[in-house]
Amino acid sequence: QVQLVESGGGLVQAGGSLRLSCAVSASMFSFNSMAWYRQAPGKQRELVASITVGGSTTYADSVKGRFTITRDNANLTMYLQMNSLKPEDTAVYYCFAIRARLGVQQPYWGQGTQVTVSS
Question: Which phi-psi region, left, alpha or beta, contains residue 28 (left: φ > 0; alpha: ψ -120 to 50)?
C-alpha cells in the first residue's frame, strides 16, 4: 500500500515562507502526476500545483509566482516551497499522487498538514 506523508506545515506571519514535504513510500517514477491540494474551512478542496513525472508544472492563479512545486525522485519526496504567504493561504494542504496499474487509475492522498498564515 502506497503512503504519502506530509510535513512542514505550521504558523507563519504574512509575507513569510514555508516548505512542505511529501514523503512517498514507493517509486515516484510510477506516478504519472503528483500534486498539492488545499482545503480551507468551509471551502472545497482546490488544486494548488501539480507536477508530472517529466517535470512539467501547473499552478493555480492565486499562487503563481509565489509557490514552487518540485519532486526529488531519488529521495522519494515532493516539495512545495511557499513564499510571500498571505492569510488567504491558510488551509490544510494535502499531497496527492496518481498512477496507472493494469489500466486502472490509482489515486493516493496524504493525511494533510495545517498551514496558518497570520496577518
Answer: alpha
pLDDT in tens, 56-83: 999 999 999 999 999 998 899 999 999 9
How many other CB atoms are found less than 10 A from the CB of residue 37? 21
Per-residue CA distances from 23 to 11, 19, 80, 81, 86 (Å) = 21, 13, 12, 15, 25
Residue with cell 515562507: 17
Q: How would residue 1 be classed by pLDDT, with cut points 50, 70 and 90?
A: confident
Q: Residue 44 contacts by C-beta under 8 Å, 6 or more apart in sequence? A: none
Instruction: For residue 81, give the nearest of 36, 24, 38 by alpha carbon.
Output: 36
pLDDT at 93: 98
**Structure confidence at residue 30 as a pLDDT band (50, 70, 90):** confident
Amino acid residing at 7: S
